Amino acid sequence: DGGITQSPKYLFRKEGQNVTLSCEQNLNHDAMYWYRQDPGQGLRLIYYSQIVNDFQKGDIAEGYSVSREKKESFPLTVTSAQKNPTAFYLCAKLSGDTSENTEAFFGQGTRLTVV
Amino acid sequence: AQKVTQAQTEISVVEKEDVTLDCVYETRDTTYYLFWYKQPPSGELVFLIRRNSFDEQNEISGRYSWNFQKSTSSFNFTITASQVVDSAVYFCALSEPPGGYQKVTFGTGTKLQVIP
Question: Are the CB atoms for B104 and B93 separated by under 8 Å?
Answer without folding.
Answer: yes
